[in-house]
Amino acid sequence: MPEQLLQQIVNGLLIGFIYSLIAIGLTLIWGVMNIVNFAHGDFLMVGMFISFWLYTLYGLDPLFSIPICTVALFVLGLLIYRWIVSKVMKGPMLAQLVVTFGVSIFLANLAVYLWTPDFRLIDKPLLSGTWNIAGINLSVPKFVATIGSVIASLFVFLFMKKTKTGKAILATEMDREAALLMGINTERINSLSFGLGAALVGIAGAFLSTYYYIYPQVGGTFGLIAFSIVALGGFGSIEGAFIAGIIVGLAQTLGGFIFDPAYKYAIVFMIYLIVVWIRPQGLLGW
Amino acid sequence: MGTRKFFVFSLFFLGLFIFIASGFAQPKVIKIGAIYPLSGNLATTGLDCKRGVEMAVEIINGKYDLSLPLAKTEGLPNLGGAKIEVIFGDSKGDPRNGMAEAERLVTQEKVVAVIGAYQSAVTKTASQATERLKIPFVNSDSTSPTLTERGFKYFFRPECTDTIFAKNQFEFLQDIKKKTGMKLESVALLYENTEWGANVGKEEQKYAKEFKYKVVEDIPYSQNATDVSSEVGKLIKAKPDVLLHASYITDAILYTKTFKELGFSPKGFATMAGYLEPDYLKTVKSDGNYMVVRSTFALDLAKRKPLVAQVNDLFKKKYGMDMSGNAARSFTAPFVVAEAINRAKSTDPEPLTKALTETNIPGDQIVNPWKGIKFDSKTHQNIYATGILVQIQNEQYFTVWPFDMASKDVIWPFAGWKK
C-alpha cells in the first residue's frame, strides 16, 4: 500500500526535523567544550513547560512564546555554564563528565516539585487539526514545527559561517589553543555556545509543546535520541546533526512500518553502529 | 527509709510506670512496605496508587462508620489497637529498583508485609525478593497471570488477572454482536512489550482463537516512544473491526493523539490501564470519548454499592479529586494485610501467611464489584475477582458491561474523530 508508505515518509520527516534541531544544540555544546550535556533533554522539558505556562496563565499561544522560550533558555544555559559547568571544567575529567548529569536530575526533580508529575497538553493551540492532501494526513502543528525547525537550523548554519562570532565558535571547536592564540576569548565562546545550544532546544520545546504532551520526564527519550544523532552525524558537526536527525526520523517510522514496530529503535541504533563501524568519526565529523 | 533506699525505690517505680504507660498509651506500630513508581515516567500513576494506600491506612487506623474491615475500630483490635504505618519505596518504574526496594524495606525497615507495585514486571522481581526473605507480598494492582502461576508461598493477589480481562473483552464483543446485530470479525492487538503487556497479548491471541476472531495485526511496542506513527500506520493498513490496546499512561495519550491525527477509526476500541488514569482524560479531554476500558472499579458502582460513594467522599475530601480505578485497586491491599494480621494476632511471617491463605472477606466489605476475596489454595489468586468494562462518555467513566451492571448503554460503533 503505497499511500501508507508515503504517509510514513511524511511522518518520518515531521519528527526528523525536530530531532535535528534538538541535536544541533547538543552538538554545538559538545563541539566547543567537549562536554556531553546530559541535561539537554531537560532543557527541552523546561522549554515545553515555559510555553505551557505562558499559554495557561496568560493565554499566549506557543507560536508567540517561541522568542520568550529562546531567550529564557539562552539565559538558563548561560547561567548553568557560568555557575556550574565552568567551575567544573577546571576539575578532574570525571567531574566534567557527571556535572551535567547532576543538572539533569536536578531540573527534572525540580519540575516534579514545582509542577507535580502530571501530564499536560496545550488544549487549544492556534495551530491544530490535520490537512488531508491526496490521501496523506498532515498534522498542521507538526508541519509548522518542521518549517520552524528548518528555519532555525538554517539560521544557526548561516550564523556559524557568516558572522565573526560564529567563525570564532567554529575556530574554538577546531583548535581551542590556536583560537586562544588568535585572540579569541574562548571563555566567552564557551558560555555563548552553551547558551545558544540551550536556546535552540528551547525553540524545539516551544514547537513540540503545540502537539506533544508535557511532563517532567519528557526529555528522557528525546535526549537519548539526540545523543545517537550527534554521534551519527559526527560530534560537533552542525550539518551532520541536521542530516542525521532526518535519517533517524525516517529510519524510525519506515523501519517500524516495514519491519516490526518493536524494533524501530533497534533499527535506529543499528544504522548508528554501521556508520560508526565504517566512519568512526560519524557522517560529517572530522 | 534512708535517702539512698528511697531513691532506688522511686527509680524502680518510675521505671515501672514508664514501662506500663508505654504499653498502654502507645499502641504498637506495625510497618507495611509499599512499592510504587513514585518518580520517573509513571510518577503520576505511582502517586495515584499511593493515595489509595494512604486512604486505606487512614480508615484502618481511624474510626469510620463504613463496612470495610477494621474501619469501625481504631487500629487492629486484636493487637491492642496497633496502628499500621506504611513505608513507601520508589521503584522508579524499573524492575531492578523494585527488587532492591523490596529488600531494603524488609531488611532495613523491618516491614512485616509488602504491597505494590503496579507494574507487573516490577511486582515480579519485588515479590521474588520477598519470597526469598519469607515475607508476605499482597498485590492488588498488577494483573499479569504469570505472577500467581509461580506457586509462590508468600504471594497473594486479590486483583483480577489479564486472563480474565482478556476473556471479558471477547465476551463483551460477543454481547455487542448479539445486541446490535453488527458483524465483528477481526481484531488488532496493540500492547507494550514488558511483562504485563506481552502477557495480555498472549491471552488475547488465545481468546481470539477460542471466540473465532481473526487477528489481523499483532503489534508489541516499547513504551515511552517519541512517535508512534509507524504502529498506527500498520493498524490503518490492517483495517481491524476492533482494536485491543494494552498501554500505560504515556502511550495511551500519544496513541490517542496519533489515532486522531492519522484518522484511524475502527468500529471500537477496547483498552486497558493507561486509559483509566485521571491524567489521561485531563490530557486528551474529549478525544478520549468512547474508549472502552477494563476495570475493577467505577464510581457509578455506587448505585448498587453505597460503600463506593462513601469511600469516594472521604477520598475527595482528602485529595480534592475523585478516586480513580488505580487508587481503588491499591486501596484494597492494605485491608487484606491488616485484616489477616488482626486475625493472626501476630506479625510473624508464618502465622500471617497462614491467616492470609484463610482470608475470606465478603463482597460487602470491599469497594470492588466482586463476591469477595478468597484465595485459591495453590495459586493464591482471588477466586472471586472479575472485571467490568467502563466507557468514556462525555469525559466521564460509566460502567457499560456486564450489561446487567451497566449504568449507561454502551455507545457502539465508534462515531469517528471529530475535527
Task: Spell out the key features of this protein.
heterodimer; A: 286 residues; mainly alpha; ABC transporter involved in vitamin B12 uptake, BtuC; two-stranded antiparallel ribbon; 11 helices; 2 strands; globular; B: 419 residues; alpha/beta; Rossmann fold; 2 domains; 7-stranded mixed beta sheet; 5-stranded parallel beta sheet; 17% strand; elongated
Structural features, described:
The complex is a heterodimer of chains A (286) and B (419). Chain A is mostly helical. Chain A has one domain (2-115, 128-278): ABC transporter involved in vitamin B12 uptake, BtuC. Chain A is built from eleven helices and two strands; from the N terminus they run ααααββααααααα. In chain A, strands 1-2 form a two-stranded antiparallel ribbon. In chain A, helix 1 (2-33) runs antiparallel to helix 10, helix 2 packs parallel to helix 4 and helix 2 (40-58) crosses helix 9. With 419 residues, chain B is an alpha/beta fold. Chain B has two domains: 29-160 and 303-385, 3-Layer(aba) Sandwich (Rossmann fold), CATH 3.40.50; 163-295 and 389-405, Response regulator (Rossmann fold, 3-Layer(aba) Sandwich), CATH 3.40.50.2300. Chain B is built from twelve helices and 14 strands. In chain B, the strands form three sheets. Chain B has a seven-stranded mixed sheet, with helices on both faces. A five-stranded parallel sheet of chain B has the order 2-1-3-4-5. In chain B, helix 5 (162-180) packs across helix 6. The model of chain B has no long low-confidence stretch (mean pLDDT 91). At the A-B interface, helix 1, helix 9 and helix 10 of A face helix 2, strand 7, helix 7, helix 8 and helix 9 of B.
